[in-house]
Specification:
Elements (H helix, E strand, L loop, with lengths): L1 E3 H5 L8 H10 L4 E7 L7 E10 L7 E6 L4 E6 L9 E6 L3 E5 L5 E3 L3 E3 L2 E3 L1 E3 L16 E2 L9 H4 L5 E6 L11 H12 L22 E4 L5 E10 L8 H9 L7 H13 L3 E5 L7 E6 L4 E4 L5 E4 L4 E4 L4 E4 L3 E2 L12 E8 L1 H11 L4 H8 L6 H15 L4 E8 L7 E5 L1 H8 L5 H10 L3 E4 L5 E5 L9 H12 L20 H15 L3 E2 L5 E2 L1 H4 L9 E2 L10 E2 L4 H12 L5 E13 L9 E13 L15 H15 L6 E4 L4 E6 L2 E8 L2 H6 L6 E7 H8 L16 E10 L4 H11 L4 E10 L8 E10 L8 H19 L2 E2 L2
Parallel strand pairs: 14-17, 28-32
Antiparallel strand pairs: 1-13, 2-13, 3-4, 3-6, 4-5, 6-11, 6-12, 7-8, 9-10, 15-23, 15-24, 16-23, 17-20, 18-19, 20-21, 21-22, 25-27, 26-27, 29-31, 30-31, 32-33, 33-37, 34-35, 35-36, 36-37, 38-40, 38-41, 39-40
Helix pairs in contact: 4-11, 5-6, 6-9, 7-8, 10-12, 13-18, 19-20
């Protein structure tokens, strides 16, 4: 947002030092990005008169000009297309400096130079080269009665200005206007705010063209004001108006359009002027269409406007895309004599959606998208009418229409002074708080209950809660005035909460296991989301940015598959990825929002080769058991392996539980998804609820260290024949539970199916490790335990010892 210093000074008394004001704006949350001085340092630039123009012999786009500077003629090479004999132009002679700076921050100095073999004794300047505006379409042409030889600082003595460019956050639509910024400065400095008065002088009833207004949907347009004016004479704008618009980067169009732009930058209310004689019939309709509309906008471009977009229509046709751009069929031209000034409030989400779909952002849509003042439409329209009457004395206001079907109630909030002290960390006088809030036009007074009762003005839609009021107090009090206590602070041993520590532990563990972390977008397309469950159970966005970002992800799997496909297409051999992020789903209780559930998940995934091919170690593909082993390593590293149970769910699929709570699953990606994401090798993934992992890690305590055994242990191998459906891990758990305290570890070291084994059977070999802290064990100590284990397994699972 560009602010003209002269313009801003109309509403609040400013110090001479522009930087002081810019620093104050930054302190109150309106960060200064750049300061530009207009019309300054023009004393070295003089007026010249073009006497001759010849084409350059060595170039088809350069001209050789003879320019009279009041004393002598200069030969200057120029590339502008709009140069003509007799023009009065701005000339920077040799050894002068332009009022703009180069990349090193130095003023650009003009030197005598040879251009394509012709010596140039200066430079004929465009407006941007003089720091007057951003216009570089051609050289700056001065009024024909300007005398050659005088300096531009003398010519533009009334046009010296400074422009402060500030960053506007999305929650401060009021700061997109000079009055809005002046209001903040007025409150900060405790100086008067001078707002221009408006009046409907010259209004004539029952004369001229009349209109009625209809609004199809008050949710999309809650107010529409129209002012009809006659005796209009469209011409160029007066110099003061051009200068103001140039300062904020706007090109002058004509006196009517310039006034509407002026009021937009003054009040923050976008306006549009229609040629009333080109409006068919006597009605204005604010409505949308059920199908796509072809519409030609003011810039002459034919646009396909999506269905549901809001239009302004007369009795026969659309004449503007509401809140974005007017139509060519009703624009103000030199022949216009009657206008209708439109001032309306359009729903921010409606304008934002249409603007994104059309890839258009105008000054008007920029403001409507953020949410303008809902009560400012009539004031802004009358202000524009008054300015037009000041420029065109015979102009008459013949009709004022104000349709307001959905007035917005004034929001009232209670503010506790004790809460202000608690949040800001400093005691602030209650009377000072009330006075400052009133300066912001937040009507405030002390109630009998001890709180401060506040009425929030409609131009501050960002103030919705008590904490927002406290933020306003902090801005005006100045955060730099709040002391930073350093005594008595107890430093925590960790910068993270337990929740954050657990997430960090998961990340560190997976990185240690050789995984690479990925980040994927939480928004996916509806078509993609349908591949991962019932689309009716998923969460759709109300105003998607694009058709590929319509649905909140129900799982982290889409992001992993996209990342895997992207890397495989770039010849990555082996993939180990993980992601920790939020997923969303329909939920009656609504952990995230009413009807919407949210939880944090962690996903790990494998695909491709274990490692690169090497002559000493031939590569092999990742398997389901690799994935299962890595999941188990994660549980062990997190110290929760004893609290988590697994349950088989078909081939290459496991479910994990913490007690009766479902933790997540490990599975192989389906062939269908492999095809969709162009993955030609088996892909394995596991996805778990991080909140349940967090619960499992509670009270795990400090690990207990055991003494190294004094006596050697003994290993005993057994090979068991069992049904193929029986899980090897299930039997491992049974062996551990049936063994005595001497049994320290059980592991699988061989699986066999084939010759001498029935088709529906398999042979699994287990290695059991026994140890006694008091003596050295021998086989006779172990064999009774083995016999007991085999008998129990045979009885429970019909398992036999393989001979």
């Amino acid at each position: 947002m560009k602010l003209s210093y002269n313009w801003l000074n109309d509403y609040v008394s400013l110090p001479e030092d522009v930087q002081e004001t810019a620093d104050t704006l930054t302190l109150i949350g309106l960060e200064e990005e750049k300061i530009q001085h207009i019309g300054a340092s023009l004393n070295q630039i003089i007026v010249g008169e073009i006497r001759t123009v010849f084409p350059h012999p060595e170039s088809d786009h350069l001209s050789i000009c003879t320019v009279f500077d009041g004393n002598k003629e200069l030969e200057i090479v120029c590339g502008a297309k709009n140069i003509e004999i007799g023009q009065k132009v701005a000339v920077a002679p040799v050894n002068s400096s332009l009022p703009i700076r180069d990349e090193q921050g130095k003023l650009i100095k003009i030197k005598k130079s040879k251009i394509r073999g012709v010596v140039s004794e200066g430079m004929i300047c465009a407006e941007d080269e003089l720091g007057i505006s951003d216009d570089h379409a051609g050289i700056m042409v001065l009024p024909p009665d300007t005398s050659p030889g005088i300096s531009l600082s003398e010519l533009f003595c009334s046009y010296q200005d400074s422009v402060i460019e500030i960053a506007i956050t999305p929650n401060r639509p009021d700061a997109t206007s000079h009055i809005g910024v002046a209001r903040d400065l007025s409150a900060k400095w405790a100086v008067p705010l001078n707002i221009p008065a408006v009046t409907t002088r010259g209004q004539i009833v029952n004369q001229g063209k009349k209109f009625t207004i209809s609004i199809e949907d008050p949710n999309k347009c809650s107010r529409y004001v129209g002012i009809v004016m006659e005796n209009i004479q469209v011409s160029s704008s007066p110099t003061w108006l051009k200068n103001r618009l140039n300062a904020v980067g706007l090109r002058s169009i004509n006196n009517i359009v310039d006034v509407t732009n002026y009021v937009m930058y003054e009040w923050g209310q976008p306006l549009h002027a229609f040629d009333a004689d080109n409006l068919k019939g006597s009605s204005i309709h604010v409505k949308s269409f059920d199908d796509t509309q072809e519409f030609t906008t003011l810039d002459g471009i034919i646009r396909e406007v999506p269905r549901g977009s809001l239009f302004i229509c007369d009795d026969e046709q659309a004449v503007a895309i509401a809140g974005i751009m007017g139509g060519e069929n009703s624009e103000v031209s030199l022949s216009t004599t009657t206008i209708m000034i439109e001032s309306a409030y359009f729903d921010p989400s409606t304008i934002r959606k249409c603007s994104k779909q059309l890839s258009i952002q105008t000054d008007a849509s920029y403001r409507f998208e953020r949410g303008i003042d809902t009560n400012n439409q009539l004031i802004a329209a009358i202000r524009a009418a008054n300015l037009i009457q000041g420029i065109i004395p015979n102009a008459l206001i013949t009709e004022t229409i104000d349709l307001h079907p959905a007035p917005k109630k004034t929001l009232e909030l209670s503010l506790r002074v004790s809460r202000v002290h608690q949040i800001l960390g400093v005691k602030i006088d209650e009377e000072w708080i009330i006075k400052q809030l009133n300066r912001l036009e937040i009507i405030s007074k002390r109630s009998s209950s001890g709180t401060i009762e506040c009425q929030i003005p409609t131009f501050r839609p960002d103030i919705e809660r008590e904490i927002d009021l406290i933020e306003e107090i902090g801005r005006l009090y100045d955060y730099n005035n709040i002391p930073s206590p350093t005594n008595g602070i107890s430093l925590s041993s960790s910068p993270f909460s337990n929740w954050e520590q657990n997430k960090q532990k998961i990340i560190e563990t997976l990185v240690g296991l050789g995984f690479n972390e990925i980040y994927s977008n939480s928004l996916i397309s509806e078509a993609e989301a349908s591949q991962f469950g019932d689309i009716d159970q998923m969460v759709a966005t109300l105003n998607p940015l694009t058709k590929d970002m319509t649905t909140l992800r129900p799982s982290l799997l889409p992001g992993f598959l996209k990342a895997s496909s992207y890397n495989k297409n770039r010849n990555a051999k082996g993939l180990r990825f993980f992601e920790l992020g939020n997923v969303f789903f329909s939920n009656e209780k609504g952990t995230f929002h009413k009807g919407i559930g949210e939880q944090t998940n962690v996903l790990i995934g494998l695909a491709g080769q274990r490692h690169e091919d090497h002559w000493l170690s031939p590569s092999s593909k990742y398997t389901f058991m690799d994935a299962k082993s890595l999941v188990h390593s994660l549980w062990v590293s997190l110290g929760v392996d004893h609290r988590i149970n697994e349950k088989i769910d078909g081939y290459n699929s496991l479910h994990y539980y913490m007690g009766k709570k479902y933790l997540g699953n490990l599975s192989q990606v389906s062939k269908t998804l492999q095809t969709i994401y162009e993955l030609d090798e088996a892909v394995y993934f596991a996805e778990f609820n991080v909140q349940l992992i967090h619960e499992a890690r509670r009270n795990i305590g400090v690990p207990t260290l055991k003494k190294i055994p004094r006596y050697p242990g003994i290993e005993y191998d057994i090979s068991l024949i069992m049904d193929r459906e029986i899980m090897a891990g299930t039997i491992e758990t049974e062996i551990c539970n049936m063994g005595t305290n001497l049994l320290k570890k059980v592991c699988i070291f061989d699986v066999y199916e084939g010759k001498n084994i029935l088709n529906n059977k398999k042979s699994i070999a287990y290695r059991l490790y026994f140890s006694d802290p008091n003596k050295t064990l021998n086989i006779s100590d172990i064999e009774p335990i083995i016999e007991k284990v085999v008998r129990s397994l045979n009885k429970k699972y019909n398992i036999e010892l393989r001979s």
